[in-house]
Amino acid sequence: MFTLLACTGGSDSPTAPTMSINIQNASLEIGQNVQLSAVNARGVVTWTSSNTAVATVVSTGFVSAAGPGTATITAATASQTASTAVTVLQPPSIGLAATSVTFSARAGGAGPAAQAVAIVNAGQGTLAGVQVGAVTYGVGQPGQWLSTTISSSTAPSTLTLNASVAGLIPGSYSATVQLIASAPTMPRDINVTFTVTAPPTIEISATSAQFTGVAGGANPTPVTINITSGTPAPATGLSASISYGQSASGWLTAQLSSMTTPSSLSLTATTGALTPGTYTASVILASPDAANAPRTVIVSFAVAARPSIALSGSSLDFAATVGGANAATQPVQVTNSGGGSLTGIAVSVDYTTGAGWLSASLNQTSAPATLTVQPVTGSLAAGTYSATIRVTAPQASNTPQSIAVTFTVGAGALIATSPTTLSITGSLSSLPAVRQVVVSNAGGGSLSGLSVGIQYQTGSGWLTATLNTTTAPASISVQASPTGLTAGTYTAVLRVMSPSASNSPVSVPVTYTIAAEPEIVLSATSRSFSMVIGEANPVSQNVVVSNGGGGTLSSLSTSIVYGSGSGWLSASLSSSTAPTTIAVSASRGALAAGTYTATVIVSSPVASNSPRAIDVTFTIAAAPSIGLSTSALGFNRVSGSGATDPSTITITNAGGGTLSGLSASIVYLTGPSPNTGWLSGTLTGTTAPASVNLVANAGTPSVPRAPGTYTALVRVTSAVASNSPRDIQVEFEVPVSFVNNIYSQLYPTYCEACHFSGGSQPNLSSVSAFRASMIGVLTTNRTGNPLATTYPRRIVAGSATMSYLTYQLQKSTGALHMPTGAQTVPASLRTLISSWINQGANNN
After folding, report:
1. How many CA atoms lie within 13 A of 538 on its CB side?
2. What confidence score (pLDDT) does residue 116 get?
3. DSSP state, residue 767
């Protein structure tokens, strides 16, 4: 903090002699002394110290350094005072960047990397003669595993520590390194810990693996063996190699998931061209740092012969009567006469005479299995029929195998119908025509006692069947009715029966299809629109209307039911007959921002599911709006001290849509002249989010900005924003600078006449000299003057009205006037000085 002294030093009289101390700003170490003397002293000199814990002084001016710090030594006579500063330095001491160091390594492995500890002077002066005093090892532990090196005996220096694992067994070791120096300072210790861990081992979840397969068959499932380390340390550099026995090679692969434990070994056996037999191999697991390496996994692969199809019989004979019951079933046992498993068994039938009359089914597809064979008499005419059943299996060595089948059908009465099936179509509103089924005898003898029954599969009661006679030839009148039914397909079976027919009953399947009514099908049941106020209405959207039923979907129409708002929606059909398209459009009109709902009703008098609804949502977002992170900003910078740090104002979109086209300008309002050019700003980005970086400039020491308060507006605008422009209030406080605003005006014109080099008064031609000469005045009370009560100190920080300097500068003449002579400090400069004092008389 700067203070001002009158040209007369410690007296109000301009002619009083100046007393000084021969040594200024002395520096001592604890225990050192210095002899001070008062120059130009008038009367008995009394010596005092401001802090006897730092420095003491006796009546002769002999000063002794007691402790670190700074003390002010003052010499005083009845009318004079002078002071000097004595600084006592802290003695040097050893400072360490770390007081503990930890090493770790593996027994039998490489030593750990060296570690460095920085050594600094934690005191003042020079720390020299730095060296290792002693290295002390833990009780009962081997020594000499730690070595030390110091880069320099004078701080700053570096202590390098190296730990050697040679000869050490797993365990924890400790040592203490003592550092000493030639200066009288306390030794410092560094505690060192060395953890030696056991080497890793290879541990495997299994020492053997077995595979089984079939020659020429699929490869067996791979086997996985887990690999871990028996110690916390991982085994690294894992490798796997294969050694084959005397049998074939190349059938085994071994893949490691990782070269460091934990890992897994994947073993895969390949059947390839291997012949039946047992094959062996060894997988060798190795690691350069595992204590128990190598480890071996024994692998065996048993390859069985291919499966073979064996049948309990190779031929079958059946007999039945025309129109009679089917012949009894006959079983054939299918077994495996080879190795492995006989799977994927399948059968097929090759017909020599006739077709489709033989049933052959397996109870399962893997051996042993049972093949059940039965011929179906059906409508076969009398005669002998033959076929071959072929049994196959993809892995069998003898596939396929055959079974010869002979079926002899004798003559008899047989029911025959024409047609053999009926398909009837109609609608819910009309009765279909009566259909006829002719019944005849396809065998021998007489077909009599005919009757007909109905067996419903879906629906009931919709079919009638009437025979015109009970002896063939005959006809059945068949009538279907939609009464009580809905649209869909219904099925039933006419059962034509006769006690004299060997194939009684005979079934005639009947299908009755009732066409569906028209049905409204919409490609979408909802539509959403959105827009921002000020933008164009959203584009229209289409919904396709199609017929999901029968007939023609016609007389389509639309209507609108509003949930909120009104008149904003339109829905127009391109045609009233499906397929057609509804164009759905939303228009804002005068609607405010918000979400609006409505429903488009689609109707048709002929549709079974009329009406159908389309839900519509219309979201209207507010226009973009300028949002600012703050609307006011303040800066403070001492006059002539340059620019402030940048302050950032964030610009966001507080509305909807996109806030673009941003710009920023500065409008200057008030402040000392000139009140412009003190603020600069940079806009980052023209689309939100963006920011404005603002900097205030207090000028340079040579061209300082006038002290005072400046105000301005930063105006942010956007053509699309609803609230443009937005203003940021900026205030810039520029406190008075003693160096830049006062000293540059005060010294050359008003102080130089007395305070110059070689003059009788102290030389104050430099700021540093001015600062040094006035040190302590702020805290020194004035005595021996009638005005001392009103103005207790030359400068009272924070109060220009109580400062004696203000009184002196305001006087135009007299002994207490300053500067001396007829000069008067201008009112503008006195105002600056008063402002500086009121602001705290800062050292700026």
Report:
1. 22
2. 95
3. H
